[in-house]
Amino acid sequence: MDLQIALLLGQDGITNGAIYALLSLALVLVFTVTRVIFIPQGEFVAFGALTLASLQTGVLPGTLWLLIGLGAVAGLIDTVFALRDRQLQRIPRILGINLALPLALAGLLANIPLSSLGLPIQVLLTLAVVVPLGPLIYRLVFQPIAEASVLVLLIVAVSVHVTLTGLGLFFFGAEGSRTPSFTDASFEIGDAMIQGQTLLVVAASLTLIVALYLFFERTLWGKALRATAMNRTGARLMGISATMAGKLSFSVAALIGAFSGILISPITTIYYDSGFLIGLKGFVGAIVGGLGSYPLAAAGAVMVGLLESYSSFWASAFKEVIVFTLIIPVLVWRSLTTRHTEEEE
Amino acid sequence: MSEYSNDTTAEKPLILDVRDLSVSYGKVEALHGLALKIRAGEIVTVIGPNGAGKTTLLSALMGLLPARGEIVYLGQRQGSDRQVEQLVRQGMTLVPEKRELFGEMSVEDNLLLGAFDRYRSGKRDHADTMAEVFDIFPRLRERRRQLAGTLSGGERQMLAMGRALMARPKLLMLDEPSLGLAPLIIREIFRIVGELKKTGVSILLVEQNARAALQIADYGYVLETGEVSLEGPSEALSSDPRVIESYLGLGGRH
Amino acid sequence: MSASPRLQLSPAWVKALPLIGIALLAVAPLLLPEFTVTLLNYIGLYAIVAMGLVLLTGVGGLTSFGQAAFVGLGAYTTATLTTTYGVSPWLTLLVGLALTALVALALGFITLRLSGHYLPLGTIAWGISLYYLFGNVEFLGGHTGISGIPTLGVFGFELHSGREFFYLIWLAVLGVVVLTRNLLDSRSGRAIRALKGGSLMAEAMGVNTPRAKIVIFTVAALYACLSGWLYAHLQRFVNPTPFSLTQGIEYLFMAVIGGVAHVWGALLGAGLITILKQWLQDWLPQLLGQSGNFEIIFFGLMMIFILHRSRDGLWPILLRFVPQAPAAQRVTTVGQPLARRPVVERGQELLSVREATKRFGGLVANNQMSLDVRAGEVVALIGPNGAGKSTLFNGISGVDPLTSGEITFRGERVERLPSREIARRGMSRTFQHVRLLSGMSVLDNVAIGAHLRGDRGYLPAALHLERDEEARLLTEAAYQIERCGLAEHLNDAAGSLPLGKQRIVEIARALAADPCLLLLDEPAAGLRYFEKQALAELLRRLRDEGIGVLLVEHDMDFVMGLADRVVVMEFGEKLAEGLPEDVQRNPAVLEAYLGGVE
């Protein structure tokens, strides 16, 4: 391998690593706030990419029907609860958010020339379709069992993953999609050619990471999420409800997932089931951080990206084997550094 | 049940009126048929040995545990499905026994989160409230940038109380504020609790440390194995020998 | 299981069910069409894997999504060895099992040490790894796989068709069912089941929990390997697809949907999922107008529903149609009771704690605490909330070792020993927050306490070669239950008892270990007046037998009436020590409890 190839591979690794890093942050967030190991994260990546691809070909994406369906079920359940509790004043809001908004979005999408819109608008519409799926899934699937053990939540998360993958196949078919590059620009630095797309992905990831940092450090809502992650009882006593924190963290995770999908889709062809492996690589990063530390998770994820990129050069067939076997030394390291203690009052 | 007359406080409006409250863990009743009243601006203390059900009482009042019986708070009868979050909005706060601070956040952020619900409902007076809290606990002002997890035991208790005050509560419930603290610091904490009375907040003080609690309280209840065994104005209780018996038993009574 | 439905089988039918089942299995291949036989073959293969998950997840509380990889290990081992090297299939079964055991031990050694959720995450990772490995290694045939795997011969009879293979598969299923049931109904089985109650309790009862975990992890992997071996010789062809993570997830779905805590649940789940899958694969593409594996949507939703509404799966629901068989008479009086520890002479020192200190970070929970307990005396440890009593208990029993200090138990230093080693030396304890296995009977719970008084391991248990020892253990447990006044609850589920009685069950469990020192953490909490009287009476009797008792208790009437000596703690230190009546009058104690008088 000469320097040029090394740099090229490094570039690839960092690009992918940046996206894995984003995903790993979302996984850490969701786990610390809700104790859910968010296996379906990858489906949000695929849904983001494929929804954008649908919009660009002028087709209404299947995720839109999913949004309407989940909204209808959630709206129905919450209305029944409101009727039971005699809190009729809540019903307009429940129906507005869960039914009217998705329908309005569908009406909008059906009546505008989707394929000829500018890319930023298409991206925004994609996020508008995919991101609300996050809190809806929390509401329907995880909120009723919020007190269950981590293991039960994990099995449920895996169930959500297979369901969404099946739906992805139904919505988008078995064929993959690749969206056009955001930019064709490239720069030459010394011997190396740096592609504009790479810079864009890295810059967008960094921007999102900084935005997340500011959200957690500077806003009361972000602090409320961190507070819930640190001490659930303490947070509840401040009036921060676990349900609200759960929905918010799932929204942030869905946003990160869909956004990652949009970023990655010009680089690789995304199939309905591609998200899973991408999400799991974010996981390897998150596990490096012990599912608790954001910086370690991000660093681990970038490392996964680089490892994957270089191993695809030397042993392309064994790329996945190498990346996922990496988890074993990481687990060994974890088992040596963390002392497993059982909760005992 | 009361053997002492308490008509001096009868005129003030009731903040909390609890009747026939029972709480069970599985098949075991931890509290049976408890009655308790708190009037505006009063400090009411519930004392008793550990295991008597004091923390259970507070958890039930705060909506952390399901309970049977009647709880009337601010004139409103509470439904059985009441949530902690609703009660916080209605001005009820609990400083729990374990403090439950946000250890990896600064003192200032902990306090800020105390005002989360007010902020959420559009009230943006947290800066003023924080200044007031700092006046009550000057130590917290000194440590405002420090992480809550690095505070000493007394400071942690102060932060927990300050954080609760950030919500501008109508009813402040304190669970064993003296727990694990050295005598000097206990004295300081109790002095502050006594002074909080001037701000008009009603206080329900649950304590094992009976003498200190009775010194600042207006009225007291002695809780023993899930039931009120004795109640009355604090002066009367502090000289009642039965309080001591409830703590240390009577050797050879059985 | 509150209201039993009207439709119920009569007890005679219930007894006959297994026989009817076996008879049906015997004639099934002769009567059923080819397609149905094939379906039943697959159900059998899947059930074997799911059975491993019952042991692992349902009983042991560990979760694996990676069982398909072990199935692949079994299948590929035999495929490679038989096709390339012409090794006999029966030999490759042994090689496959050995290889699987090796891999499972290595993976288990790494991942089982980690807290709960790392294991399933780890299984996902190596599930994927192994799948890609199967698909990319040339001598394993890559993605096209290996064909031409020979048929199996049994006593010279070649199993060519699915109908013939049926008998082998279902024999294996029955074998696995019997082994699993035997294993669970034994001393080792109780040790495995104790894992779910938290390793803290299990260790304090003397169970080597890391070993128990690794055993069930390996057994589950071996079942999977067996299924893979059968699969390879049934199909006579392997490729990576059936060993993917998706299939691993489906195995877990089978176990959970069927009822992960029940051996028959695995069979039910495997049957249900396999049949449903067949049906949905025909029907869904027509409905949706596309082809694809859409049945997974249905299974995913079904799992979510099951975990929301009926976490124990479908088997317990099915059980409601079957009348509750009267609890089998499991306790028989056997000739020889268990050997007892030599009695320590009354008054002799049992336990001596010197300058015990425990720090949690900056917090000093115990500071230079010292106390003694002699044989035949009751010592009460009292003090205000947060004084550090439970911490000291955990230090003494080895559950959470001291930072510094010395603990001498029967003349031997024990402060660095793990709790199961301390238990072995004759110290037994109860927990402040009751740690019983609520779904298990009182008898089984108490028998866990006698764990260290037996020594037959996992293999004899699986083959039920330890029935004599088992009977003696159960007799001992039943004796302790009776002694504690709970004879009427012998076969009740421990969780159905009121909390006060559950505490007594904990005492019976501790006694089943034949201890010379009992540590009781708030034994009287939640008891009614007359129950406390009975407990005090029991403790007095134990004291008279020469057992030392150290107890933490808040009920002062109880303590003062029972204890020979009282040790008072405050701020992690000893505040006072003496006779009950002296302690009650001690001004320092009054101040600790009631606060200072200014």
UniProtKB/TrEMBL annotation, chain A:
Name of the featured protein: Branched-chain amino acid ABC transporter permease
Molecular functions per Gene Ontology: transmembrane transporter activity
Magnesium recorded as keyword: no
Pfam families linked: BPD_transp_2
Entry's localization field: Cell membrane
Keywords tagged on the record: Amino-acid transport, Cell membrane, Membrane, Transmembrane, Transmembrane helix, Transport
Topological category with respect to the lipid bilayer: Multi-pass membrane protein
UniProt similarity note: Belongs to the binding-protein-dependent transport system permease family. LivHM subfamily.
Species of the source: Rhodocyclus tenuis
Keyword DNA-binding recorded: no
From TrEMBL, chain B:
One Pfam family hit: ABC_tran
InterPro entries: AAA+_ATPase, ABC_transporter-like_ATP-bd, ABC_transporter-like_CS, BCAA_Transport_ATP-bd_LivF, P-loop_NTPase
Name assigned to this protein: ATP-binding cassette domain-containing protein
Keywords in alphabetical order: Amino-acid transport, ATP-binding, Cell membrane, Membrane, Nucleotide-binding, Transport
Gene Ontology MF annotations: ATP binding; ATP hydrolysis activity; branched-chain amino acid transmembrane transporter activity
Signal peptide coordinates: none
Family, as annotated: Belongs to the ABC transporter superfamily.
Residue ranges occupied by any ABC transporter domain in the UniProt entry: 16-250
Biological processes annotated in GO: L-amino acid transport
Gene3D superfamilies in the cross-refs: P-loop containing nucleotide triphosphate hydrolases
Keyword Cell membrane included in the entry's annotation: yes
From TrEMBL, chain C:
GO cellular component, one term: plasma membrane
InterPro entries: AAA+_ATPase (IPR003593), ABC_AA/LPS_Transport (IPR051120), ABC_transp_permease (IPR001851), ABC_transporter-like_ATP-bd (IPR003439), BCA_ABC_TP_C (IPR032823), LivM-like (IPR043428), P-loop_NTPase (IPR027417)
GO molecular function, one term: branched-chain amino acid transmembrane transporter activity
SUPFAM superfamilies in the cross-refs: P-loop containing nucleoside triphosphate hydrolases
Coiled-coil region list: none
Keywords per UniProt: ATP-binding, Cell membrane, Membrane, Nucleotide-binding, Transmembrane, Transmembrane helix, Transport
TM ranges: 12-32, 44-70, 90-110, 165-184, 214-232, 252-275, 287-307
Membrane topology according to the record: Multi-pass membrane protein
Subcellular location: Cell membrane
Chief localization: membrane
Listed SMART domains: AAA
Domain annotation ABC transporter: ranges: 351-596
Protein name: ATP-binding cassette domain-containing protein
Species: Rhodocyclus tenuis
